[in-house]
Fold this sequence. Notes:
Layout (H helix, E strand, L loop, with lengths): L5 H26 L6 H8 L3 H7 L3 H20 L9 H17 L1 H11 L2 H7 L6 H16 L5 H23 L6 H16 L5
Helix pairs in contact: 1-2, 1-6, 5-6, 5-10, 6-9, 8-9
Amino acid sequence: MSPRTPEQFEEMRESRRKQIMDSALKLFASEGYSHCSISQLAKHAGISKGLMYNYFESKEALLLALIENGMNEVMTLLDPNMDGKLNPNEVEGFIRKFFHSMNENLQFWSLFLGVVLQPGVKAYLEDKPFGNVMEHFAPKLLDYFKEMGYEDPMLELLTISAMIEGYGSLLLFIESGENFPPESLRKYEDRMVKMFTRNQQK
């Protein structure tokens, strides 16, 4: 049997890292972030505590990796051509693709939002940047609303953020068995597109 190449080792490491993160997301969601220990996380992932530390130096580092990973997925949808500027077509594409992603990956996003919205997590994350996510996400949208001529760009930024988070909260109810008419959810998406891709001042 030939020895593994560096690329194969890196692939194995990334696979194990994803396994740990997927397992942690489920445990954080079911048991609560504040109540989980590294030992519990390692056991749930099916690895030793020592091996866990080879991937994440602490429970906090694992949490931040989970959140940055989820938010980076959002970032890839926001500025697809990576030119640093947004136009109405890109903002509409972002809204529709993100909503599609949330609906197609309902379990992931319901777990993700269930963890992020926990009081202990929100308190811990206060004032912590997530790499390029917080650095670029808000400024790009803010610049877009200024370019589009909205009277209060910051208000629009807060509103679109709240509406996305609100839609995410609906997913938690859907995942738990609540039934929302699909047509109403589509109208919610259309309402957002209309609000944030047209100059409402004209």
